[in-house]
Sequence to fold (251 residues):
Amino acid sequence: MPPLASVPDLERELDELYGLPLEDWTKARNDLASRLRKAHQSAQADAVRKLRKPSVIAWAVNQLARRDDGDVEALLKAGERLRAAQEEALRGRGGAADVTAAARAEREAVRGLVAAARALLEEAGNAATQQTLDRISQTLRAAAVDETGREQLARGRLDEELKGIGFGSLTAVKPAARPRTDELKQARERVKELRATARTLGREARDAEMEAERAAREAERARGKAEEARVAAERAATEVAEAEAEVERLR
Fold:
């Protein structure tokens, strides 16, 4: 019997795999690997079989890349601008205003995507806890400025959450060579100071953003409770009116 035809579009199959609900993922991966092996595509079959099932965090981010690709693209562009602004600042050629503006654009993009992720998780029956949303936010931020993470996010093929890399990815940035030793020393000291400032501001910005997101969720819960209380009060008022009417009828 001649071998089966090869899997015609493996990349499309992989895109479909990473778009599946988590409960269907492992079986679909194994089925794809089996089809590849039957088609005598052993190397591809082995590679597919080794793919790891995404974590809940990675799965949610992957779905954002499919459902909110425009917003993800905006985040990637914001991350690229932020990285460039940070590099320029560390080299002494950029200003704090550029970094601040780029960081603000990145935070706004992340905030919108986290809100979308919350709805997506609830739709899928997963708990959108504060910790889960913070980890999604951290993964989005890390992916936005890391080359490997950017590619995986754009394709929606993350298999695990990413840790916040802060400004660590920029430690390889070197100041331009100086013709004199004293100028070189001063430039290095400036880079050292800028890195320390950037790390501090980065931590403060992340903490402030997380606190703002928590406050927004608390406000939303408070509004929900207020609405429930209003409905209960209206129901009680209706019952009082009905009871008074019954008293009048019985007189």
In short: Residues 181-250 form the longest helix (70 residues). Residues 166-179 have pLDDT under 50 and may be disordered. Residues 10-49 form one domain. The chain has nine helices and no strands.
